[in-house]
Amino acid sequence: MRLRPRHLRTRLTLWYVSVLAALLILAWSGTCALLFRQLRSQLDHFAVQEIETVEGLFFFTPARQLRLREDYHNHPESKDVIERFLEVRSPDGSVLFRNERLGNRALGGMPLAGEGLGGYSERSARLSDGTRVRLVSRVHSLDGRSLLIRLAHSEEPLFSRLKDLLLASLLVLPLVLVAAGVAGYGLARRALNPIEQMARRAQDITPEKLHERLPNDDTDDELGQLARVFNGTLGRLERAFEQLRRFTSDASHELRTPLAMIRSVGEVGLQKDGTRAEYRDIVGSMLEEVNRLTSLIDSLLTISRADSGHIQLHRTVMPVMALAREAAGLFEILMEEKSQRLVLEGDEHAKVEGDSLFLRQALVNILHNAVKYSPVGEAITMRVRNGDANQVTVEIQDNGPGIPVEDQGRIFDRFYRVDKARWRESGGAGLGLSIAKWAVEAHGGHIGLDSTPNGGCTFRVSLPAAVTPQHVSSKDA
Amino acid sequence: MRRVRSYKGNVHILVVEDEQKMAKALQEGLEADDYSVRVAHTGEEGFYLIQAQPFDLVILDVMLPGHDGFEILATLRKRGIQTPVLLLTSRDTIEDRVRGLDTGADDYLVKPFAFPELLARTRVLLRRGKPDSSQRLKLADLEMDVAQRSVVRGGQQIELTVREFELLEYLFANEGRVVSREMLARNIWKETARQTPLDNVIDAQIVRLRRKLDGQFERKLLHTVRGVGFVLREEDES
Predict the structure, then answer these.
(1) Helix, strand, coil % (nearest 5) of chain A?
(2) CA–CA separation, B90 vs A355, rounded Å?
(3) Which of A276, A298, A428 sits opposite B238 (nearest CB)?
């Protein structure tokens, strides 16, 4: 199991404190090392000066004993203030002299190769009793004899000072870190507080309360941005939900209407004894409603499949005029019955790439609308244009009553009918245009509407023109 | 007077359908068309029956409790039983259709379907759906010569448009049987999408054809069966 704090603010604080501790320790040890080096080099400097002094004070007694003249002190007790250790060896290593302070402890052992030649050699060493010293050596010539003078000062005061410093920091550092931790936690908490608020609010947003929004969306910082993005998503969700809710309620209403008729016709038919012909009529009437239900459900299925993105388009390149002609051909007879004329004109070369089934369906649905609502004897015009910006436009213009401005925005909505009372005679559940809109938009096109108040309306379908008119992609099943 | 079609009594159809009402309707409808029908209410029962006796056609519902129609069909085909199978399903998705045909179904019908449609498909699967090979068709005093593209009634030539001619030819092919608007939409108008608004178009076309065929004659031949479709026959049944 990993130890991982649950709260972001705790994690942030821990991170912050750890980084701070590492940095402090780094800085502190750096400072200490620097200080130590400086003190030691001071010690070396001091030793060098003293070697200079003592060099001149050595002399050989007549018995060839090496001695240090110590009679230069103004006061005899001044001798005790001097903390140096002093040792002189001959090049073969034999000890010629050790001062009082050193006693019989060895200072640095046998001479090293090149030690003290051509200048001063500094190094750290230990006395035989373990005392740490800083040692400077120099080879000096006296009365024709070569002397290795070693002069050392104890490093112990340095180390004890270092120890004190470290001890002090050991006491102070935790205090600093705790203080920083508390402050950091407070800051993190303050910075993350809006997130917590947002989370609490978001948790409360259920499908029934999709109109609610997150707070803090008015600031320019990252959190404000997050809140705005989230609110945007909520907005889209709300609209989708609203659409779905309306769709479901409309659909059940539409399904209920034929069902109610089937029921009433059946019940009333059973109440009285009828002739065979009357019964046939009753059953036939019920079957008519069943057919209406069936085609309604087929349309609903198409829509639901379109909504869930389950419809695959089998694209081929096709001339739009052929498509328009096919759609027009379907309604030829209806138009003849109403003495309507169809004017089909346009660019034979205009081509689009798409699923002919769905594109034709779109044109058929729009044209069906035009035929239904155009009065007897009027003309319907279908115009195909290879427009600019690689768009092919199909205009379907009728001379019907037109569509009131207040309905134009919703004319492509599902189940929407301008004339709510009369739809059953004209047929259709108000899904044709919404299916047309879906089909056109699924092909990257656009569907629009112009309607003048004095009558007539023009549906305009724009589709991206086929890029390679020669290329015909295979129509896979 | 109905034509005697007793030969069909020898044609055995197995209906595998768990919905009692649906099974009963299918049985009665098929029997009314002179087929002899057995009904199985589960896939297992159907499977047993098929192995016990030969059938000329199996009408198999996809949604069955236990082993569904696809499984039954797959097992049948695996055992080498090649009886034609007509699948019935309430789901109209391309995947289902492809799956059904891949599994070895001979045809596929989506519920709810028009009964005349089922009868038509049945006839096709039994290879009895083709019209008489003779190109001269006759009903009462109506004569149609497909090769000459001429229609004569009571000695009078009747001028038909191409579509009217095709429509009459199709009605002749199904003489005495009701054809639904859906069948006409698919076979005459070649319209595969079910939600295409063609009903008004078909009705208008029928009205015209009737005007030309029956307009001036006492005896009506082209009848509308309300809620179902149209039928070409000598006498009204009711």
Answers:
(1) 50, 20, 30
(2) 25
(3) A276
Cβ distance A427 to B93 less than 8 Å, yes or no, reads: no
Ordered by start, the domain boundaries in chain B are 6-125, 136-232
Predicted structure pTM score: 0.64
**In terms of C-beta distances under 8 Å and separation of at least 24 residues, what long-range contacts does A186-194 make, across chains too?**
A188/A8, A188/A9, A188/A12, A188/A13, A188/A16, A189/A9, A192/A8, A192/A9, A192/A12, A194/A223, A194/A227
Quote the percentage of chain A above a pLDDT of 70: 93
Q: With contact defined as beta carbons under 8 Å apart, do B16 and B46 qualify?
A: yes
Tens-place pLDDT, residues A415-450 = 887 766 554 544 567 888 888 999 999 999 999 988
Q: Which pLDDT score is estimated for B128?
A: 52
**Cβ neighbours around B89 below 10 Å, total:** 22
User: Going from the N-terminus, what domains does chain A have, and what CATH number goes with each?
Assistant: 8-160 (3.30.450), 222-307 (1.10.287.130), 316-464 (3.30.565.10)
Any CB–CB contact under 8 A between A278 and chain B?
Answer: no
pLDDT digits over A19-38, tens only?
999 999 899 889 888 988 99
Please give the pLDDT value at position B5: 45
Query: DSSP code of B142?
Result: E
Q: What is the ipTM of this complex?
A: 0.78
3-state secondary structure of A350: coil
> Which of A284, A299, A334 comes nearest B226 by C-beta?
A284
pLDDT of res. A272: 84
Query: Confidence class of residue B4 from pLDDT cuts 50, 70 and 90?
Result: very low
Residue A129, CA atoms < 13 Å, CB-side half-sphere: 7
CATH class of the domain comprising B6-125: alpha beta
The runs of H, that is alpha helices, within B108-218 are 115-125, 162-173, 181-187, 199-214
Angle between the N-to-C axes of helices A320-337 and B199-214, in degrees from 0 to 180, rounded to the nearest 10: 50
Select the residue of A287, A295, A310 nearest B228 (Cβ to Cβ): A287
Question: Which of A284, A294, A364 is the closest to B112 by Cβ?
Answer: A294
Answer yes or no: do A357 and B200 touch at CB < 8 A.
no
Cβ contacts of A280 on chain B, cutoff 8 Å: 226, 238
- What confidence score (pLDDT) does residue B101 get? 82
B1 has pLDDT over 60: no
pLDDT of A219 reads 78
* Confidence band for B26, pLDDT divided at 50, 70 and 90: very high
Best of A265, A298, A363, A431 to disrupt the B interface by mutation (most B CBs within 10 Å)?
A298
pLDDT at B208: 92
Distance of alpha carbon A104 from alpha carbon A128, whole angstroms: 9
pLDDT score, position B174: 87
Q: Does A357 touch chain B (CB under 8 A)?
A: yes
Bridge-partner residues for A138, per DSSP? A149
The CATH number assigned to the domain with range B136-232 reads: 1.10.10.10
What is the structure's pLDDT at A477? 38
CA closest to A327 among chain B residues: B196
Chain A CB contacts of B193 below 8 Å: 357, 361
Q: Does A365 touch chain B (CB under 8 A)?
A: yes
Find the CB nearest B194 among A277, A281, A298: A298
Residue B164 has pLDDT above 70, yes or no: yes
Q: Cβ of B169: how many Cβ atoms within 10 Å?
A: 18
B97 in reach of chain A (CB within 8 A): no
